[in-house]
């Protein structure tokens, strides 16, 4: 009977590390293939919310919750002509602002969030939208998702926006098992090149809307199906 080979504990540890490293290397290659392919498929990926400054983007992002970007873009032109500064939004009567954003849904809570956030901007930051994660998330009604949208698209600071599409596709592709957006973001930070965090967020969102749809994923025409562990045949 052949005896199994016994290694010194230090060698055993080295072998385990080697296996982990090889597995991580293979996963890194797969992730990079997926990201590169998606970037080629959606070269036009960019923020869909129309804005001219950080304040407009912040307000538009708040309005986009449970609402399409297209609908928000129909509401914001008139809104931004009327309210040009954080102080303008902070002074806006609640009922009036509710009616002006009514078509975006959840208008009462959104109006309250906009007014509260803008009051904080006036009081804490002299009327200017701050440019750091810590400062942005100190504003009432602003979480990491909204902060990452503003940082990445208004200030050029890379950030991963974990919306429903990014979270769903990340789980389908095996990049995370988490459902909590913050945990998903932290998992993706380890896999995505930092310089591309903002652009890749838009890219994955576009793919989720166009092909990998929640109700009926179109796997046969998906450009990254070969690397997807959740793909469906036919």
List the helices and strands and how they pair.
Elements: H1 9-41, H2 54-63, H3 69-82, H4 86-91, H5 94-100, H6 107-125, H7 133-136, H8 144-154, H9 164-172, H10 181-189, H11 197-210
Description:
The protein is an all-alpha fold and 234 residues long. Helices cover 58% and strands 0% of the residues. It is elongated and about 65 Å long. The relative contact order is 0.12. The mean pLDDT is 92.
List key phrases describing it.
mainly alpha, 11 helices
What is the tally of beta strands?
Answer: 0
Proportion of residues in β-strands: under 5%
State the major sheet: none
Helical proportion? 55-70%
Structural classification: mainly alpha
Number of helices: 11
Gap between N and C termini: 49 Å
Overall pLDDT metric: 92
Rg is 22 Å
Assign an overall shape: elongated
Unreliable spans are: none
Order of helices and strands: HHHHHHHHHHH
Short description:
This protein is mostly helical and 234 residues long. It contains eleven helices and no strands.
